[in-house]
Amino acid sequence: MIDSHCHLQEFEDLQAVIGNASSAGITGMICCGTDVESSKQVIQIAKRFESVYATIGVHPESNDDPLEIENLINFPKVVAIGECGLDTDNPREIKLLKMQVDLAKRHNLPLMIHNRKQDKKILEILGDYPKVILHCFTGDMVFMKECVKRGWYISFGGIVTFKSSHGLRDVAKAVPEDKLLVETDAPYITPEPLRGTRNEPRNVKIVAAKIAEIRGTSINQIEEVTARNARRLFGIA
Ligand SMILES: [Zn+2]
């Protein structure tokens, strides 16, 4: 199965972490840059490990220039722009996001979107661009439906396993099967029951199991469907 969003550049014991993932049956990992330096790192990791693919971008917390990202775009295994998005609606963040939307459009690449309660702005800025992943989705039913209408993919991570996430589980149940993705955001957002420990891509199985439980289907079905969706979206084998 495929972990649609992680940050392998944060692990010092990379070889072991990728070994753990592979033993758990994780055949693909989408490793996301958050600034110019980490985008260069994820390209190197993708080069080194067959199962790893890279996304390159500038997170709203960074002040790097997205134009520097464009120099990296033609490296092999770069499958998306991001992660990029909004923590707030301040003009600096909006400008940063708009530049990366433009970059994705010019190169016909998917956008890996980070969104902290800026639903309206995200819809407005991304418009009808169809190649979008809402990573670590935490929005409500109305927003999910708006996203799906535009052809966007909804990726769920560890938050869907948290006790308090009742509303999010209702959303996860309602996402059309062909728009569903799963992720870890490792080393962050460890799923239940492992909270308090470091998150790793192998834990995407826990997320998949929770989604299967919510949707009343088998883990196998969720693994298959989400892997198929990720391959289609990212254009990977
Ligand atoms: Zn992330």
UniProtKB/TrEMBL annotation:
Stored InterPro entries: DNase_TatD-rel_CS, Metal_Hydrolase, TatD-like, TatD/YcfH-like
Pfam families tied to this protein: TatD_DNase
Ranges in coiled-coil conformation: none
Chain positions recorded as a divalent metal cation 2 binding sites: 114, 135
Binding site for a divalent metal cation 1: 5, 7, 83, 185
GO cellular component, one term: cytosol
Transmembrane portions of the chain: none
Keywords: Hydrolase, Metal-binding
An MF annotation (GO) of this entry: hydrolase activity, acting on ester bonds
The organism of origin for this protein: Candidatus Amesbacteria bacterium GW2011_GWC2_45_19
The protein's name in its UniProt record: Hydrolase, TatD family
